[in-house]
Amino acid sequence: MKKRVLLFLSLLFVWGASLLAQDVPEGVVAAFKKGSSQELRCFLGDKVDFLFNSRIVSSEREATLNRLSDFFTENKVNNFSVHHQGKRNESSFFIGTLTTTHGNFRVNCFFKMAQNRYIVHQIRIDKTND
């Protein structure tokens, strides 16, 4: 009986720790895997900095969605994988590789806490030489 209680508490602790470690919304990762700007809609802040090919554009949510839609139309997504993610205070980020029909892109996505959830406030997409 004592072993079952210890096992249960251990599993409960691991489950709780894994929930707290998920600071990057999984829906954002899934949207990049599908190449779907529309699935990103509910994760974007009112203003988003979008950096592509060393050009930064700070725009409203809808304009950012249009730019992402154009990018995904021109670059059909084959795969997306997250290589690194982190958290500090009220912000988090991930770095990943987006594999498309026109090559690989490094994606940096930065989040900030707003209304008790993480929202995207910056997306940076750079072509890689891989």
Report on the architecture of this protein.
This protein has 130 residues and is an alpha+beta fold. It has a single domain (23-127), classed as Roll (Nuclear Transport Factor 2, Chain: A), CATH 3.10.450.50. It is 36% helix and 46% strand. It has 4 helices and 6 strands. It has a 6-stranded mixed sheet, covered by helices on one side. The N and C termini lie far apart (55 Å).
Comma- or semicolon-separated keywords:
alpha+beta, six-stranded mixed sheet, 4 helices, 6 strands, 46% strand
**CATH architecture assignment:** Roll
Largest sheet: 6 strands, mixed
* Percentage of residues in strands: over 45%
Order of helices and strands: HHHEEHEEEE
Helix content: 25-40%
> What low-confidence regions span 5 or more consecutive residues with pLDDT below 50?
14-21
CATH class placement: Alpha Beta
Average pLDDT value? 85
By CATH, the topology is: Nuclear Transport Factor 2, Chain: A
Structural class: alpha+beta
* Oligomeric category: single chain
- Tell me the Rg in angstroms: 17 Å
The number of domains: 1
Count, helices: 4
User: End-to-end span in angstroms?
Assistant: 55 Å
- Total strand count, please? 6
The global form is globular
